[in-house]
Amino acid sequence: MASVSALRAGAALCLAIAAPACGLQASAEGEDASLELQDWPWSRRSAPGRGGERAPPGTGRVLLSTMTFPEDNLPLDVTVAHQVRMVSKYPDTIQHVIVDNRPPWMEPVNRQETILQSMSKSKVSTVRRVDYSVYDSPKYLQKFFETGNETDSCKTLEDAHDMSDISGQHMSSNTHGMFNFLEACLTAEAAVDLCVFLDPDIVVYRKDKGMIEMAREVFATQPTAIALNPPTMCSAFDEAGSDTCKTRRPGMLSQRYLIINRQRLTSVLPLKVPHEEFNVNFEHLFGDSLRRVNSGGQRMICNGAFAIHPFSARWAHCRNKKENLNIERHSRLVAQSVKKETSGDYHSFDMTMVEGLKEMISRVEAGKLAKPQESGEPAELQSVSNMCEDMCVDQNRIAQGLAW
Ligand SMILES: *[C@@H]1O[C@H](CO)[C@@H](O)[C@H](O)[C@H]1NC(C)=O
Q1: What are the backbone dihedrals phi and psi of residue 57, each rounded to the nearest 5 degrees, phi first?
Q2: Binning pLDDT at 50, 70 and 90, where does residue 163 land?
Q3: Residue 167 pLDDT
Q4: Span 88-136, pLDDT tens digits
Q5: Which residues neighbour 58 within 8 Å (Cβ) at sequence distance 6 or greater?
Q6: Ligand 1 in contact with 274 (CB < 6 A)?
Q7: Residues of the signal sequence (predicted)?
Q8: Parallel/antiparallel/unpaired status of strands 305-308 and 203-206
Q9: pTM metric for this prediction
Q10: Using CA positions, which residue lies closest to atom 11 of ligand 1?
Q11: Does residue 159's CB lie within 6 angstroms of at least one atom of ligand 1?
């Protein structure tokens, strides 16, 4: 598996891909923060040092993974470089894996094929094509879930129904992709002790220590924890919080961001799911079955690091919900604010969107973040929603130099 140590400042990736991808590294550093920003101490921090720190001897390695579908909306070279820099203060311990999911009922072409090839060739990531020949194999399913019915396979989930109208094929192909990630985790080299999954659009922040280092501390003090969700922005910036992480049992373990203790997961597989309940998406299958194993899934509550999802029309209750400032619109707004609107494409992506995305990421890495406030605060200050897991994007804050 490829080491991504060279990716710390995005430099290797820049060389590997194309000139327009460069410039990601902390352009925010030299800029003057506006006066408003100075009220909020986190916004004045310069971006983390390039190159990162070397991990102390004996530190485990991390398998960090994301999944791509043919129609993804963000270029993975940009988002993966960001995630690698921010999940850990020791990026040289990270091995990156892309789960390349091309369900047979979709066009077999991934729109960012050239990016995938380039990341693979430059050993920034290992690209794993999801194997659909085992999609209807009960044996393959039984590596991960035991339903007690010998005919169940991942394909069985095509008949599943989600309350929020996700199609059965969506759930089955997503679950099959997550199995590919778990398989990569199980078969990783012995030095890997943590396996982390992040959706490609997850934005990550660390002031110093990353969520990986924090997760190691949680696993050390909680012997029954198997999978963790990272801290949210609200706990990351909780001034009453302590340096030691706490945890709580989440209402539902989220699949967007998962930090898994490899050895403990291995010891509980296959997870038990009653056949009658084998009709929901991976998130529920995994979270519900872990819950039966000693509350194996926990939410981290820690200071100084967080993960967050962009605005979500589905889950967020933001004051300006109607504007639907999803990550693409959000990125274009950021590009406008720094006058980086441009024509043309970056691979199959709109160049203005990509420029804005890079600027937004730079702002996050430099800590140009609004104080997290949910509803209940004056509406115009609301910056997060969905229990601090989704962004509420605001045009005025972007104009002031903040990330969202
Ligand atoms: C297994 O599941 C299938 C499909 O739901 C069902 O038709 C079959 O009766 C089940 N077999 C057993 C042994 O429960």
Answers
A1: -55, 140
A2: low
A3: 87
A4: 999 889 999 999 999 999 988 999 999 999 999 988 999 999 999 999 9
A5: none
A6: no
A7: 1-23
A8: antiparallel
A9: 0.88
A10: 149
A11: no
